Protein 1
Amino acid sequence: MSSIPPVQVYKKLLAVYGPQGWWPADSPFEMMVGAILTQNTSWQNVETAIANLKAHNMLDCELIASSNLQQLGEVIRASGFYMQKARYLQQFSLFYYNNSKRKGLSKWPTSILRNRLLAVHGIGPETADSILLYALDRPVFVVDAYTKRLFMRLEHFDYELGYDSIQHYFKQRLPESLPLFQEFHALIVEHAKRFCKTKPLCSRCPLASDCPTAMGSGAEINRPKHPDVD
DNA sequence: ACCCAGGGTCATA
DNA sequence: TATGACCATGGG
C-alpha cells in the first residue's frame, strides 16, 4: 500500500487549485514580517496587523528596529501574542538591517543563512525556511502543521516526526526547484485549510481517492513510522 | 462556551 | 531530550 509520491500530490493539487503565487506581500521585508506574525495565528489576523503597520508607515526595517516596544505591540495587536511578536520583529529587523546592507546576505550559502536566521530570537525552523523560500529565493522545503497533517493522512509518515526528519523526507523525493517548493507549500496550505481540518472527514476532497482516511471511514490504518529508507 | 489558527521559547525532570 | 506552560487575538 505504497503512498502516492509527493510529486504526484503536487501535480494533482496544482491541477485542482492552479498556481497560488505565494507569498502574498508587496516586498521581501513585508513577507518576512508576515512570516513572524503568522506564527500559530490565522492569516486574516496577520493581514489586519500588516495593514495597520502600513497605515502607520511602520513597515520598514529601520523604523521597526528603533520603534517603541509598547507602541509596536499596539500596532500589531490583532496578530496575537503581540508583545512577544513585537520583540521578535525588533530582533529580526535589527538583524536584517545589519546584514542586508551590502554585507552580502544574499551571497551567503543557504545553510549558513539558515543558521543565521535560526540564531535570531523568535525565528524557528519553519519561519526561517519560509523566509528563505519566499523572501530570499532559496529552494527549501517548508514544513508546517498543514504539511504534517496532510501527509500523515496520506500515510507518508507518522505525525510524531520532527521538523528535520519530515523536511529530509521531501528533500530526498523532490527535485531541488525554487518554483516547485514555492508552489507546493502554498498548495498544501490552501488545500489543507479546506479539507484537512482536525476532523477525519474529507468529503469531496480532491485527494479523496488517494487519502485512506477520506470519507470518514474512521478506520485506523497502520502507518509507517520512519520515512527514511535509504 | 468552546475550538482553532501558516510556531517559538523557556522551565522543568 | 522530551514534555508542558506560556504567549493572545479574532473567527467559526
Note: Residues 82-100 of chain A form the longest helix (19 residues).
Protein 2
Amino acid sequence: MKSTDTNFFEDVYQVVRLIPKGRATSYGLIAEYLGSKGSARMVGWAMNQAHAMPDVPAHRVVNRNGLLTGKNHFQTPTQMQELLESEGISIKNDQIMNFESIIWSPKIELL
DNA sequence: GACATGACGGCAG
DNA sequence: CCTGCCGCCATGT
C-alpha cells in the first residue's frame, strides 16, 4: 500500500457509476465533490485508469464546457460521442448541446 | 530528486 | 470575446 491509496480513484469511479443515463458531469464537479476542489486533473487521471475498471461510463464525464476532451482516449475517438448520442445526448462539434440542462452535479444530486 | 506532462479550471490581460 | 498563464496532484522519464 502506498501513501496515496487508490481510494481517490475508487471514489471517482463510484461517482461516475452513479451518473444516470442521459446525463453528464464535469471533472471539476467530481473533484470538488471529493474534496479535492481545484484538482480536476486528478479526476482526468483517474479516468485514464477507468478503462481498467468495469462499469465506469467515462464517456459521461466531460470538461466544464461540455466538450468531449477525452474522446481520444477511448477505444475509438468516436466511441464517446456514439455512446452519449445513444443515451439521448445530442453532440455537435464534439460538444454536448444544452449541456447545462443535462449536467449532473454529485454535490447536488447526491446531496 | 528534479523536470516535464496530463481526459481541467479559474483568472488576468 | 479570445488568448495565455498559473495552480492543482499524481505519474513517467
Note: Residues 3 and 100 of chain A are 37 Å apart (CA to CA).
